[in-house]
Amino acid sequence: MAAVHQVTIALPDWINEVVDWQKTYADDQQKMALAVELSRQNVLRGTGGPFGSAIFAADSGKLISVGVNRVMPMHNSSAHGEMVAIMLAEQRIQSFSLAADGVKRELFTSCEPCAMCLGGTLWSGVKRLVCAATAEDARAIGFDEGPVEASSYQYLADAGVEVVRLVQRDAAAKVLNDYLNHGGTIYNG
Ligand SMILES: [Zn+2]
């Protein structure tokens, strides 16, 4: 096998059927509804694991990027929904930091982040993290969230990242359970 010098992470083809890029997302409920719908569609369409995320400009309610889990299709253990959304948002604004231009941005995710994505959230520069299903919900179907502790969340808080949990938890947890019940792969390394 030849050496590789480049990696691609792409959203599935159906994204624009589900995402309204022009809409103003008025509140947390509308924003989370998109993240959860992305997770649901990703399972229904068989394009990755049961996780969806979206990044918004907090003040305008404009959508900047979305992410869905692409671990298996992209052969990439880093391609969690949150990381995909973060990478695409940074590409869109052409900055390594979503805080560099002073715009407050927020990450909505259908499930509380794993250890990698919690770190990714910190590095991304988003100022608010909103979660639906809990880490326990993910663990309950077999996904290992890694070393996520109360102190991890405290670290984010100390760094100025507001964290909100349990927004539309039931709807998001149902997606996780549907994934398991329909034979979805639990792909822990
Ligand atoms: Zn993750």
TrEMBL record:
Superkingdom of the organism of origin: Bacteria
Domain CMP/dCMP-type deaminase: start-end pairs: 26-156
Organism (species): Arsukibacterium ikkense
Transmembrane segments: none
GO molecular function terms attached to this record: guanosine deaminase activity
Species lineage: Bacteria, Pseudomonadati, Pseudomonadota, Gammaproteobacteria, Chromatiales
InterPro entries cross-referenced by the UniProt entry: CMP_dCMP_dom, Cytidine_deaminase-like
GO biological process, one term: purine nucleoside catabolic process
Protein name from the UniProt record: CMP deaminase
Pfam families in the cross-refs: dCMP_cyt_deam_1
